[in-house]
Amino acid sequence: MKSRIALIASLTLTVAGAASAADLLGTLKSQAGNFSMPEMGSSTMGNAAGVLQYCVKNNYLAGGDANAVKDKLLGAVTGQQPQQEGYATGAKGLLQGTDGQSFDLKNVSGKLKTKACDYVLKNAKSLV
């Protein structure tokens, strides 16, 4: 009798665990599918430079091309207080868009961080 109860309890936990895992997987897939990034423009050049710095520092982008683009962006915004504040925010991993949206790289997995960093680099190249 005790072994039956243990078996039933074990099966119940296994089924519940599988359901929880399925729910978690579904949530993660939906988050990945809803991967949308803020719009970038000339008003966010400093922030983009900061995000590039964050991406290189944390090994989500190789330094060569990303550093060159970052330096060009910084050259274009040097001395502009809002752009410098945007750089500081970006260097902490927070991408701010011209559309008022933001994306915090610290809150997503490594693969999504890499995609976000690639997005920033691609769009930053079009700004310089």
Could you explain how this protein is built, in words?
Helix 2 (45-57) runs parallel beside helix 4 (81-91) and helix 3 (63-77) packs across helix 5 (110-127). Strands 1-2 form a two-stranded antiparallel sheet. The chain is mainly α and 128 residues long. The chain starts with a helix and ends with a helix. 70% of the residues lie in helices and 5% in strands. The longest helix is centred in the first third of the chain and has 32 residues, at 2-33. Strand 1 (94-96) and strand 2 form a beta hairpin. It folds into two domains: 1-34; 42-127, no CATH class.
Which percent range describes the beta-strand content?
A: under 5%
Give a count of the beta strands, DSSP E runs of length 2 or more: 2
List low-confidence stretches: 9-19, 25-32
- Which strand order spans the largest sheet, edge to edge or round the barrel? 1-2
Largest sheet: 2 strands, antiparallel
The ordered H/E elements are HHHHEEH
On the 0 to 100 scale, the average pLDDT is 81
List the domain count as a whole number: 2
Helical residue percent?
A: 55-70%
Tally the helices: what do you get? 5
Counting helices, strands and paired strands, the structural category is mainly alpha
Query: What is the general shape?
Result: globular
Alpha-carbon Rg, integer: 21 Å
N→C terminal distance: 74 Å
Output the keywords.
5 helices; 128 residues; signal; globular; 5% strand; 2 domains; single chain; mainly alpha
In short:
With 128 residues, the protein is mostly helical.
Secondary-structure topology with pairs:
Blueprint lengths: L1 H32 L11 H13 L5 H15 L3 H11 L2 E3 L5 E3 L5 H18 L1
Antiparallel strand pairs: 1-2
Helix pairs in contact: 2-3, 2-4, 2-5, 3-5
